[in-house]
Amino acid sequence: MVILTHGFPELAYSWRHQVPALATAGYRVIAPDQRGYGGSTRPEAIQAYDIAELTGDVVGLLDYAGAERGALIGHDWGAVVAWSTPLLHPNRVAAVAGLSVPPVPRPLTPVTEALRRIFGENFFYMLYFQQPGVADAEMDADPRRSLRRMLGGMRAPQDEAAALRMLAPGSEGFIDRLPEPDRLPEWLTAADLDHYAAEFSRTGFTGALNWYRNYERNWHITAHPTVETISVPSLFVGGTDDPVLTFTKTDRAHEVVVGPYRQVMLEGAGHWIQQERPAEINAELLAFLAQLRWT
């Protein structure tokens, strides 16, 4: 059993290149719209999106499928869920892979507290997302524009001016700061964007943004995990042009993962890595899964 957990602002659709490859190789695959997204429920309470609930959803999928254990593969926020599940539910995880977000140790202070200390009065999108209704309104105003800019223009800044624009203090929102792409990237067709835009136009972005609003709750929840480290086989794949990796470092994985661990960096790949580089990601995932002793 393989469970694929997507990130923000994506859907199960973001695994459209992986599901057929994994299924053809003989794996049973579940790729859900996670809570708050697409066809899944969207609870109103912010605390309904904390890491206990999100990892509990993964366990619920395993129960539904009648699987004692599964291999978890997550991207972006889905990678956070994937890395957290073997800590909170170790008996249910046979292996874990994270794309774009590596395993990191629990911080000394809640993420938002640390970010406010680092960025001060400067803009940072994770802090901007904290106030209910603000980022929601900006993104909901034109979901297609929001998704076009996030999916099509979110890469590591190519010059200092672009980087400074993303951090400059002021009332300008996150989407307004992102560059408008001249054209869609090769990996994102107009039909792909239509699918994302139609779903987020229907659901809005609040459920998805509520994941970010649980940083402090998650910090408290993870203070006493079921186990302290991950012992199952683990894989991280990132892109050298991923802006997330400018502030999420990969050099502390050994503090979290004590089992077999492999890290792969794809040169020139951005954040949406399984959609940008499907052939390379599929090859890495299939090689990783083939080594497992399934029980």
Walk me through the topology:
Elements: E1 2-5, H1 18-24, E2 29-30, H2 51-65, E3 70-75, H3 77-88, E4 93-99, H4 111-119, H5 125-128, H6 134-141, H7 143-153, H8 160-167, H9 174-177, H10 190-203, H11 206-209, H12 215-221, E5 234-239, E6 261-266, H13 273-276, H14 278-290
Parallel strand pairs: 1-2, 1-3, 3-4, 4-5, 5-6
What does this structure look like?
- The chain is 41% helix and 11% strand.
- It has two domains: 2-109 and 217-290, Rossmann fold (3-Layer(aba) Sandwich); 111-209, no CATH class.
- Strand 3 (70-75), helix 3 and strand 4 form a beta-alpha-beta unit.
- The chain is globular.
- Helix 2 (51-65) packs across helix 3 (77-88).
- With 295 residues, the chain is an alpha/beta fold.
- The protein has helices at 18-24, 51-65, 77-88, 111-119, 125-128, 134-141, 143-153, 160-167, 174-177, 190-203, 206-209, 215-221, 273-276, 278-290; strands at residues 2-5, 29-30, 70-75, 93-99, 234-239, 261-266.
- A six-stranded parallel beta sheet has the order 2-1-3-4-5-6, sandwiched between helices.
